[in-house]
């Protein structure tokens, strides 16, 4: 059985990670590709319930996502993650424990993320209701050399998804 891959979408809340990841997953599934989506919000509900948003808890959450992604990819599954995963060091740990890791930086300025914020998270963080909020009161460390850099203020989600799929085909990770 061939190894799978891990598409690791990282970026600020509201940058477009989940939107693009959902499009990529839908297109891969339409082709019959074995693919699983590990969404950061869903993982926090099911696998990381009880964790807060301290640096230590965020690191634990990202490592858990990475462990599951690695397990699935070793068994031929394509794994798509959409998680802020704000720290370079822990993303690098995940890269080391997974097969065919593809870091995808979903990049949008914090002001644009605030504008897109349908959940009101940035406003709550500004009022101090959400401590350690990435991009407001906690840092986000952009990837140093991501395999893909998607600037969501310069292209629509469909175009970004098409770039991800083209990358997978160029690397012979999908047919």
What tags apply to this protein structure?
alpha/beta; single chain; five-stranded parallel beta sheet; 175 residues; 15% strand
**Rough shape?**
globular
Measured distance between first and last alpha carbons: 15 Å
Q: Tally the helices: what do you get? A: 7
Number of strands: 5
Mean pLDDT: 92
Question: How would you characterize this protein structure?
Answer:
It is built from seven helices and five strands, in the order E-H-E-H-H-E-H-E-H-H-E-H. By secondary structure, the protein is an alpha/beta fold. It has a five-stranded parallel sheet with strand order 2-3-1-4-5, with helices on both faces. Helix 1 packs across helix 7 and helix 3 runs parallel beside helix 4. The mean pLDDT is 92.
Topology (SSEs and partners):
Elements: E1 5-10, H1 17-30, E2 35-39, H2 40-46, H3 55-74, E3 78-82, H4 88-97, E4 101-107, H5 110-116, H6 121-126, E5 148-151, H7 157-170
Parallel strand pairs: 1-3, 1-4, 2-3, 4-5
Helix pairs in contact: 1-7, 3-4
Outline of this structure?
With 175 residues, the chain is an alpha/beta fold.
């Amino acid at each position: 059985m061939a190894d799978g891959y891990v598409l690791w979408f990282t970026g600020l809340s509201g940058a477009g990670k989940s939107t693009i990841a959902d499009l990529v997953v839908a297109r891969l599934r339409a082709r019959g590709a074995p693919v699983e989506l590990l969404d950061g919000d869903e993982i926090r509900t099911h696998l990381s319930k009880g964790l807060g948003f301290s640096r230590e808890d965020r690191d634990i959450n990202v490592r858990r996502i990475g462990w599951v992604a690695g397990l699935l990819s070793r068994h031929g599954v394509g794994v798509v993650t959409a998680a802020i995963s704000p720290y370079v060091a822990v993303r690098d740990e995940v890269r080391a424990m997974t097969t065919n890791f593809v870091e995808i930086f979903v990049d949008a300025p914090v002001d644009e993320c605030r504008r897109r914020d349908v959940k009101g998270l940035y406003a709550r963080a500004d009022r101090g209701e959400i401590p350690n909020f990435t991009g407001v009161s906690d840092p986000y460390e952009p990837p140093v050399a991501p395999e893909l850099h998607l600037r969501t203020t310069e292209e629509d989600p469909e175009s970004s998804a098409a770039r991800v799929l083209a990358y997978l085909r160029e690397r012979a990770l999908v047919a």
